[in-house]
Protein backbone atom coordinates (compact mmCIF):
# COMPACT_ATOMS: atom_id res chain seq x y z
CA UNK A 1 0.00 0.00 0.00
CA UNK A 2 1.26 3.49 -0.80
CA UNK A 3 1.97 5.84 2.10
CA UNK A 4 -0.98 7.90 3.38
CA UNK A 5 -1.25 11.54 2.33
CA UNK A 6 -0.57 13.89 5.21
CA UNK A 7 -3.19 16.66 5.49
CA UNK A 8 -1.16 19.71 6.50
CA UNK A 9 -3.25 22.11 8.58
CA UNK A 10 -0.30 24.48 8.49
CA UNK A 11 -0.31 24.66 4.71
CA UNK A 12 -4.11 24.90 4.37
CA UNK A 13 -4.08 27.64 7.02
CA UNK A 14 -1.52 29.62 5.07
CA UNK A 15 -3.67 29.42 1.95
CA UNK A 16 -6.81 30.55 3.80
CA UNK A 17 -4.91 33.34 5.54
CA UNK A 18 -3.75 34.72 2.20
CA UNK A 19 -7.42 35.07 1.21
CA UNK A 20 -8.26 36.72 4.54
CA UNK A 21 -5.38 39.21 4.14
CA UNK A 22 -6.70 40.20 0.69
CA UNK A 23 -10.17 40.81 2.13
CA UNK A 24 -8.73 42.87 4.98
CA UNK A 25 -6.98 45.05 2.40
CA UNK A 26 -10.23 45.51 0.47
CA UNK A 27 -12.16 46.39 3.65
CA UNK A 28 -9.55 48.95 4.65
CA UNK A 29 -10.61 51.00 1.59
CA UNK A 30 -13.99 51.34 3.30
CA UNK A 31 -12.31 52.17 6.61
CA UNK A 32 -13.32 48.83 8.11
CA UNK A 33 -10.76 46.92 10.16
CA UNK A 34 -11.83 43.60 11.70
CA UNK A 35 -11.38 43.73 15.48
CA UNK A 36 -11.06 40.83 17.91
CA UNK A 37 -11.17 41.05 21.72
CA UNK A 38 -9.81 38.15 23.73
CA UNK A 39 -10.58 37.87 27.43
CA UNK A 40 -8.29 35.71 29.56
CA UNK A 41 -9.05 35.21 33.25
CA UNK A 42 -6.42 33.62 35.49
CA UNK A 43 -3.09 31.91 35.03
CA UNK A 44 -3.65 28.72 33.04
CA UNK A 45 -0.30 28.35 31.18
CA UNK A 46 -1.78 26.65 28.09
CA UNK A 47 -4.42 29.39 27.79
CA UNK A 48 -1.71 32.08 27.90
CA UNK A 49 0.06 30.36 24.97
CA UNK A 50 -3.20 30.09 22.97
CA UNK A 51 -4.01 33.74 23.59
CA UNK A 52 -0.54 34.88 22.49
CA UNK A 53 -1.00 32.88 19.27
CA UNK A 54 -4.35 34.58 18.64
CA UNK A 55 -2.80 37.99 19.25
CA UNK A 56 -0.02 37.19 16.77
CA UNK A 57 -2.50 36.00 14.12
CA UNK A 58 -4.33 39.34 14.46
CA UNK A 59 -1.08 41.26 14.00
CA UNK A 60 -0.05 39.18 10.99
CA UNK A 61 -3.40 39.72 9.26
CA UNK A 62 -3.81 43.42 10.06
CA UNK A 63 -6.74 42.96 12.46
CA UNK A 64 -7.30 45.29 15.38
CA UNK A 65 -6.97 43.32 18.61
CA UNK A 66 -7.37 43.78 22.33
CA UNK A 67 -6.34 41.25 24.96
CA UNK A 68 -7.85 41.68 28.41
CA UNK A 69 -5.90 39.72 31.01
CA UNK A 70 -7.84 39.58 34.28
CA UNK A 71 -6.66 38.25 37.63
CA UNK A 72 -7.80 34.76 38.65
CA UNK A 73 -9.73 36.30 41.58
CA UNK A 74 -11.83 38.54 39.31
CA UNK A 75 -15.55 38.20 40.02
CA UNK A 76 -18.16 36.96 37.56
CA UNK A 77 -19.67 40.46 37.62
CA UNK A 78 -16.37 41.99 36.58
CA UNK A 79 -16.09 39.64 33.61
CA UNK A 80 -19.75 40.30 32.68
CA UNK A 81 -19.14 44.05 32.83
CA UNK A 82 -16.19 43.69 30.44
CA UNK A 83 -18.25 41.54 28.03
CA UNK A 84 -21.03 44.18 28.09
CA UNK A 85 -18.50 46.90 27.28
CA UNK A 86 -17.06 44.88 24.37
CA UNK A 87 -20.58 44.09 23.09
CA UNK A 88 -21.14 47.83 22.75
CA UNK A 89 -17.70 48.73 21.35
CA UNK A 90 -17.82 49.52 17.62
CA UNK A 91 -14.15 48.66 16.94
CA UNK A 92 -14.72 45.09 18.18
CA UNK A 93 -16.47 42.57 15.92
CA UNK A 94 -15.47 39.35 17.63
CA UNK A 95 -15.31 38.47 21.33
CA UNK A 96 -13.60 35.35 22.63
CA UNK A 97 -13.50 34.47 26.31
CA UNK A 98 -10.76 31.88 26.71
CA UNK A 99 -11.91 28.68 28.44
CA UNK A 100 -11.55 27.18 30.99
CA UNK A 101 -12.57 29.95 33.40
CA UNK A 102 -11.74 29.84 37.13
CA UNK A 103 -14.20 27.61 39.02
CA UNK A 104 -16.11 30.45 40.73
CA UNK A 105 -17.15 31.93 37.36
CA UNK A 106 -20.02 30.21 35.52
CA UNK A 107 -18.98 29.64 31.90
CA UNK A 108 -22.60 29.56 30.80
CA UNK A 109 -23.35 32.97 32.33
CA UNK A 110 -20.40 34.48 30.45
CA UNK A 111 -21.07 32.79 27.09
CA UNK A 112 -24.77 33.72 27.24
CA UNK A 113 -23.77 37.38 27.75
CA UNK A 114 -21.71 37.64 24.53
CA UNK A 115 -23.60 39.36 21.69
CA UNK A 116 -24.69 36.61 19.26
CA UNK A 117 -23.29 38.48 16.25
CA UNK A 118 -19.86 38.88 17.96
CA UNK A 119 -19.68 35.27 19.22
CA UNK A 120 -16.75 34.18 17.02
CA UNK A 121 -16.34 30.97 19.06
CA UNK A 122 -19.84 29.89 18.00
CA UNK A 123 -20.59 28.84 21.60
CA UNK A 124 -23.67 31.02 22.29
CA UNK A 125 -26.87 28.94 22.51
CA UNK A 126 -28.43 30.93 19.63
CA UNK A 127 -25.48 30.11 17.34
CA UNK A 128 -25.55 26.47 18.49
CA UNK A 129 -29.31 26.34 17.86
CA UNK A 130 -28.91 27.82 14.38
CA UNK A 131 -26.25 25.20 13.64
CA UNK A 132 -28.66 22.44 14.73
CA UNK A 133 -31.50 23.65 12.50
CA UNK A 134 -29.16 24.45 9.60
CA UNK A 135 -29.63 28.23 9.67
CA UNK A 136 -26.81 30.65 9.10
CA UNK A 137 -24.62 31.07 12.20
CA UNK A 138 -21.05 31.70 13.30
CA UNK A 139 -19.61 28.17 13.32
CA UNK A 140 -17.35 26.92 16.11
CA UNK A 141 -13.74 27.19 14.94
CA UNK A 142 -12.28 23.70 15.42
CA UNK A 143 -15.27 21.90 13.84
CA UNK A 144 -15.28 24.34 10.91
CA UNK A 145 -11.54 23.66 10.47
CA UNK A 146 -12.14 19.90 10.49
CA UNK A 147 -14.71 20.17 7.68
CA UNK A 148 -12.43 22.44 5.64
CA UNK A 149 -9.58 19.90 5.91
CA UNK A 150 -11.82 17.02 4.83
CA UNK A 151 -13.10 19.03 1.85
CA UNK A 152 -9.56 19.85 0.74
CA UNK A 153 -8.70 16.15 0.38
CA UNK A 154 -10.98 16.37 -2.67
CA UNK A 155 -12.89 13.30 -1.44
CA UNK A 156 -16.65 13.76 -1.49
CA UNK A 157 -18.35 13.77 1.93
CA UNK A 158 -21.95 13.20 0.74
CA UNK A 159 -23.13 9.64 1.24
CA UNK A 160 -20.05 8.58 3.20
CA UNK A 161 -20.13 7.00 6.64
CA UNK A 162 -18.51 9.37 9.13
CA UNK A 163 -17.76 8.25 12.67
CA UNK A 164 -17.06 10.91 15.31
CA UNK A 165 -15.37 9.75 18.51
CA UNK A 166 -16.11 12.21 21.34
CA UNK A 167 -19.28 14.17 22.14
CA UNK A 168 -18.05 17.46 23.62
CA UNK A 169 -19.97 20.68 23.00
CA UNK A 170 -16.81 22.28 21.57
CA UNK A 171 -15.85 19.57 19.06
CA UNK A 172 -17.71 16.23 18.84
CA UNK A 173 -21.32 17.44 18.73
CA UNK A 174 -20.79 20.32 16.27
CA UNK A 175 -18.51 18.23 14.01
CA UNK A 176 -21.24 15.58 13.80
CA UNK A 177 -23.83 18.23 12.89
CA UNK A 178 -21.60 19.76 10.22
CA UNK A 179 -20.86 16.35 8.68
CA UNK A 180 -24.59 15.66 8.61
CA UNK A 181 -25.10 19.01 6.89
CA UNK A 182 -22.61 17.83 4.25
CA UNK A 183 -24.85 14.76 3.75
CA UNK A 184 -22.63 12.19 5.48
CA UNK A 185 -24.22 9.36 7.45
CA UNK A 186 -22.96 10.06 10.94
CA UNK A 187 -22.35 7.76 13.90
CA UNK A 188 -21.19 9.16 17.24
CA UNK A 189 -19.06 7.18 19.68
CA UNK A 190 -18.04 8.21 23.21
CA UNK A 191 -16.46 6.88 26.37
CA UNK A 192 -19.42 4.54 27.09
CA UNK A 193 -19.66 3.09 23.55
CA UNK A 194 -19.37 -0.72 23.31
CA UNK A 195 -17.32 -2.22 20.46
CA UNK A 196 -15.85 1.14 19.49
CA UNK A 197 -13.13 -0.30 17.25
CA UNK A 198 -15.71 -2.33 15.35
CA UNK A 199 -17.85 0.78 14.72
CA UNK A 200 -14.93 3.10 13.96
CA UNK A 201 -13.47 0.63 11.46
CA UNK A 202 -16.63 1.00 9.33
CA UNK A 203 -15.95 4.72 8.84
CA UNK A 204 -14.95 6.29 5.54
CA UNK A 205 -14.24 9.44 7.55
CA UNK A 206 -13.04 9.13 11.16
CA UNK A 207 -12.86 12.22 13.39
CA UNK A 208 -11.30 11.68 16.80
CA UNK A 209 -11.74 14.11 19.70
CA UNK A 210 -11.69 12.01 22.82
CA UNK A 211 -8.73 13.48 24.71
CA UNK A 212 -6.69 10.29 25.28
CA UNK A 213 -3.17 10.20 23.87
CA UNK A 214 -2.58 7.69 21.06
CA UNK A 215 -5.75 5.72 21.88
CA UNK A 216 -6.82 5.05 18.30
CA UNK A 217 -4.61 2.44 16.67
CA UNK A 218 -4.86 0.74 13.28
CA UNK A 219 -7.55 -1.68 14.55
CA UNK A 220 -10.01 1.28 14.58
CA UNK A 221 -9.34 2.30 11.00
CA UNK A 222 -10.73 1.02 7.70
CA UNK A 223 -8.06 0.87 4.97
CA UNK A 224 -8.10 4.14 3.03
CA UNK A 225 -10.31 6.06 5.52
CA UNK A 226 -9.76 9.80 6.08
CA UNK A 227 -8.54 10.29 9.68
CA UNK A 228 -8.79 13.67 11.44
CA UNK A 229 -7.13 13.86 14.85
CA UNK A 230 -8.38 16.71 17.06
CA UNK A 231 -6.45 15.47 20.13
CA UNK A 232 -3.83 17.67 21.82
CA UNK A 233 -2.38 15.75 24.75
CA UNK A 234 0.75 16.82 26.59
CA UNK A 235 2.81 13.72 27.45
CA UNK A 236 4.98 13.52 30.59
CA UNK A 237 7.99 13.92 28.31
CA UNK A 238 6.57 17.35 27.34
CA UNK A 239 5.86 16.14 23.79
CA UNK A 240 2.48 16.82 22.20
CA UNK A 241 0.47 13.76 21.12
CA UNK A 242 -2.82 13.37 19.33
CA UNK A 243 -5.59 10.88 20.14
CA UNK A 244 -4.51 8.82 17.12
CA UNK A 245 -1.43 6.60 17.10
CA UNK A 246 -0.18 8.28 13.93
CA UNK A 247 2.69 5.87 13.17
CA UNK A 248 0.54 2.73 13.08
CA UNK A 249 -2.60 4.34 11.61
CA UNK A 250 -0.86 6.02 8.67
CA UNK A 251 0.12 2.55 7.43
CA UNK A 252 -3.54 1.69 6.75
CA UNK A 253 -5.44 4.99 6.47
CA UNK A 254 -6.07 7.35 3.61
CA UNK A 255 -5.36 11.08 4.15
CA UNK A 256 -4.51 11.75 7.81
CA UNK A 257 -3.77 14.82 9.95
CA UNK A 258 -0.59 14.99 12.05
CA UNK A 259 -0.25 16.41 15.59
CA UNK A 260 1.14 19.03 15.78
CA UNK A 261 0.56 20.79 12.45
CA UNK A 262 -2.89 19.38 11.72
CA UNK A 263 -6.12 20.63 13.24
CA UNK A 264 -4.35 23.04 15.65
CA UNK A 265 -3.34 25.74 13.13
CA UNK A 266 -6.78 25.53 11.49
CA UNK A 267 -8.60 26.53 14.68
CA UNK A 268 -6.99 29.97 14.88
CA UNK A 269 -7.40 30.49 11.13
CA UNK A 270 -11.13 29.78 11.37
CA UNK A 271 -11.32 32.22 14.30
CA UNK A 272 -9.83 34.90 12.05
CA UNK A 273 -12.27 33.94 9.30
CA UNK A 274 -15.20 34.24 11.73
CA UNK A 275 -13.98 37.64 12.93
CA UNK A 276 -13.72 38.84 9.33
CA UNK A 277 -17.25 37.57 8.63
CA UNK A 278 -18.62 39.22 11.80
CA UNK A 279 -16.93 42.51 10.82
CA UNK A 280 -18.54 42.41 7.38
CA UNK A 281 -21.97 41.57 8.75
CA UNK A 282 -21.83 44.22 11.48
CA UNK A 283 -21.02 46.74 8.74
CA UNK A 284 -23.99 45.66 6.64
CA UNK A 285 -21.86 43.75 4.10
CA UNK A 286 -22.31 40.06 3.20
N1 LIG B 1 -10.12 26.72 25.18
C1 LIG B 1 -9.73 25.67 24.42
N2 LIG B 1 -10.26 25.73 23.19
C2 LIG B 1 -10.99 26.87 23.16
C3 LIG B 1 -11.77 27.49 22.15
O1 LIG B 1 -11.91 27.02 21.01
N3 LIG B 1 -12.36 28.67 22.51
C4 LIG B 1 -12.25 29.19 23.74
N4 LIG B 1 -12.89 30.33 24.01
N5 LIG B 1 -11.53 28.64 24.71
C5 LIG B 1 -10.91 27.49 24.40
Automatic annotation (TrEMBL):
It catalyses: (6R)-5,10-methenyltetrahydrofolate + H2O = (6R)-10-formyltetrahydrofolate + H(+); (6R)-5,10-methylene-5,6,7,8-tetrahydrofolate + NADP(+) = (6R)-5,10-methenyltetrahydrofolate + NADPH. Residues 7-121 form the Tetrahydrofolate dehydrogenase/cyclohydrolase catalytic domain. One of its GO terms (cellular component) is cytosol. InterPro entries: Aminoacid_DH-like_N_sf, NAD(P)-bd_dom_sf, THF_DH/CycHdrlase, THF_DH/CycHdrlase_cat_dom, THF_DH/CycHdrlase_CS, THF_DH/CycHdrlase_NAD-bd_dom. NADP(+) binds at residues 166-168. Keywords: Amino-acid biosynthesis, Histidine biosynthesis, Hydrolase, Methionine biosynthesis, Multifunctional enzyme, NADP, One-carbon metabolism, Oxidoreductase, Purine biosynthesis. Pathway: One-carbon metabolism; tetrahydrofolate interconversion. Pfam families: THF_DHG_CYH, THF_DHG_CYH_C. GO terms for biological process: L-histidine biosynthetic process; methionine biosynthetic process; purine nucleotide biosynthetic process; tetrahydrofolate interconversion. One of its GO terms (molecular function) is methylenetetrahydrofolate dehydrogenase (NADP+) activity. Residues 140-281 form the Tetrahydrofolate dehydrogenase/cyclohydrolase NAD(P)-binding domain. Its EC number is 1.5.1.5, 3.5.4.9. CDD domains: NAD_bind_m-THF_DH_Cyclohyd. Belongs to the tetrahydrofolate dehydrogenase/cyclohydrolase family. Catalyzes the oxidation of 5,10-methylenetetrahydrofolate to 5,10-methenyltetrahydrofolate and then the hydrolysis of 5,10-methenyltetrahydrofolate to 10-formyltetrahydrofolate. Homodimer. PANTHER family: C-1-TETRAHYDROFOLATE SYNTHASE, CYTOPLASMIC (PTHR48099:SF5), C-1-TETRAHYDROFOLATE SYNTHASE, CYTOPLASMIC-RELATED (PTHR48099). This is Bifunctional protein FolD. It comes from Paenibacillus solani.
